[in-house]
Description:
By secondary structure, the protein is of the alpha+beta class.
Amino acid sequence: MEASERPHRRSWSITVRRARADDKEAVLSFATRTWDGSDYIPDVWERWLAATDGVLLVATAGGAASTAVGGRRPVDADGAPLEAARAVAVARLTMLSRDEAWLEGIRVDPRVRGMGVATDFQVAELRWAAAHGVRVVRYATGPDNEGSHRLGARHGFALLGEWRWYGVDDEDEETPPPDAAPSTGGVTIVREVDGDRWWERVTADPTLRRGHDLYERRAWALQELTEERFRGHVARGQVTALEYRADGADRWALAIARDEGWGDEDPALPASPALLVGDGRAALALLQALSGGQPGVPRVLLPDVEPPILDGGTVSAWAAAGWRPRDRTLHILTRPLDAAHPLPEPEDAALLEMEEDPRAVARHWSAPS
């Protein structure tokens, strides 16, 4: 079938259910080579399947309504038959807190793309999110991923902002060799942070405000930094600050360590902070203190393409020290779940079935004790 003849909608329903161990082969058949021959889904499948802080969902081809809608069996976009009950899409809903959910890992079998599978699947995801009582759902995508943006907009997601990485990037051929450890003369590194004093600074910080108070507590997922969470980081010894006086002004910076990494970071390198705020030059000094002399490491994710922390030409000093701005950025999309933003309905209710009623089956993600 020519591409111009492919159907824009299908005549068979998808059934959405929680993933099972025996879905692995089907899922990995279309979620292994997504970007230039690679994907992270094979690395996280077992962990996501066992996790209690989220719901791993799949959509399968066909259901009770399939024969009632046009009387046709499930077929792909080229008209080839699909195996009944075989997964054709996967995605994870993560409970970052009691009222914040994060969508990640959505993949659709190329054979059924353009047939409305992702559209109906996202409706099902939002039903599961609502069943957990969340007030907001977010997800990240690339600025050039037009399909992801269109899909989100169709269901009420709006662009919250753009975040950019600074420092060593995954695309670099190798990590720069270490320099001599930077001098900290005249600079005070604070590792036993006074929660009261530093929270006042952090909560008023313009970079945190520009980022809508979000931070990367869990790698690749942003959530709100509350006072309770900040004090939890302080209690776990995950907050490092730096302060000094220069040019007649008091300068400071503060970094919060993540509660959880992605799992594939090089243990020999310092992990990216969950948050970095303060004065740009003080923040650079703090990064260098944390780097052990390794230029551009740890990598930092900052909100906006021109974050307040880099005002006044500080970006050039960062770049010279190894923390240059990267071309790659992230778009964060957000959708409230409240009376003013009701759940979307599928274009055709007969084409979406739920194997079980969505319900609160996941605990919210919590920091390691």
